[in-house]
Structures are given as C-alpha cells and as structure tokens.
Amino acid sequence: METQSNTKPMTPPPRRWKRLRIVCLAVIALIVVLVLVMVILGLTVFKAKRPLTTVNSVALKDFDVSVDIARLRVNLNVSLDVNLSVKNPNKVGFKYTNSTAVLKYRGQVVGEAPIPASKISADQTSTMNLTLTLLADRLISNGNVYSDVISGTLPLSTFTRISGKVNILSIIKIHVVSYTSCDLSINVLNRSVASQTCHYKTKL
C-alpha cells in the first residue's frame, strides 16, 4: 500500500528571496544602462559618417595616336595616372571590399584597374595611385573616335565605386558606398588633360 508524501517544496527564506530579487533587479538595471550607453554613443560619438573619395589628380602617362586617313581609322595608346584619396571621418575603422576603377569613352568601358580590399583606420585618409590603360581593341567598332581625334579633343571619363562597412562597437555594421566620376577632355595636339570635372556621391 502506497503512502502519500506530505513533503512540501522548499522555498528560500524571506531574506534570501529578497536578496535574489535585488540581485536580479540590479543585473537588469545594469544591462539597461549598458544598452542605453551604447545607443547614445552609437548616435553621437560613434555615429556612422560617409567616407569621402576624392580624385586628387589625373595625368596622362602615355598618349600615342596615329591617323589612317585612307581607312578613316585611328590607332590609340592612352594611359592615365589617377591619384585617389579615401577619407574615413568615423571614430572606428572602415573596411572596403575589392573594387574596380573604370575608364570610359562616351559611356563605353575601355579600360579597368583593380582596387584591392583594405581597411582605413579611424580619422585617417588612404591614398592610392591607379593606372588606367585604354584597350584599343574595344574602340575598333566605335565610329566616333576618328572624328574626336581629328577635332583635337578626346572625351574620356573615370568611375570608381568603393563599397565597405563601418563597425560600430563591434555590434552594429553599417554598409557604406562611395562613388566618384570624372569627365575629362584630352587635348590631342598638346597631349595633356585640357579639363577635368569630378562628381562625388556617398550613401549609407
């Protein structure tokens, strides 16, 4: 015959229960304070700012041109040295992925140069030198080249897109993209950059 146990579950003494309650409340309050501090820092001191890409200079490295009047064709060899700087105004580092600088002729991509992935420390500026070489075979079917060279002005443009992330307090990751484009006019006779207009855009 089974006997029923009258043993009641043990409960902490009132004082011990009170201490446990105080400890739990203190831990919760500490967590709330830490979260509030992190949010405030994230919105003020560590607020994500947009890295700025600037084209410091564009210069002709090589420029060789020959005109075949009989065939109405032009043979071009063009290389540009582009000096870029990327400024990170954030209080934390900015990491960007592999990218590419592009050389265009009337909207057509005619040359490329890689931009290797890297990291820019807080409040630092990174400078990079790129060489963009025009690939002549991409212009064979473009009928505007001959007329542009004969007129004495060759329009080119450069475009870069640098994409990366800003890590705030190692918890919040904000994606940032910086765009740079420059419109160039190459003086065929002087073999120099006659004019340069650059546009910059960044977004979070």
Automatic annotation (TrEMBL):
<dbReference type="InterPro" id="IPR055301">
    <property type="entry name" value="Lea14-like_2"/>
</dbReference>
<feature type="transmembrane region" description="Helical">
    <location>
        <begin position="20"/>
        <end position="46"/>
    </location>
</feature>
<keyword id="KW-1133">Transmembrane helix</keyword>
<dbReference type="Pfam" id="PF03168">
    <property type="entry name" value="LEA_2"/>
</dbReference>
<keyword id="KW-0472">Membrane</keyword>
<protein>
    <recommendedName>
        <fullName>Late embryogenesis abundant protein LEA-2 subgroup domain-containing protein</fullName>
    </recommendedName>
</protein>
<dbReference type="InterPro" id="IPR004864">
    <property type="entry name" value="LEA_2"/>
</dbReference>
<feature type="domain" description="Late embryogenesis abundant protein LEA-2 subgroup">
    <location>
        <begin position="84"/>
        <end position="174"/>
    </location>
</feature>
<keyword id="KW-0812">Transmembrane</keyword>
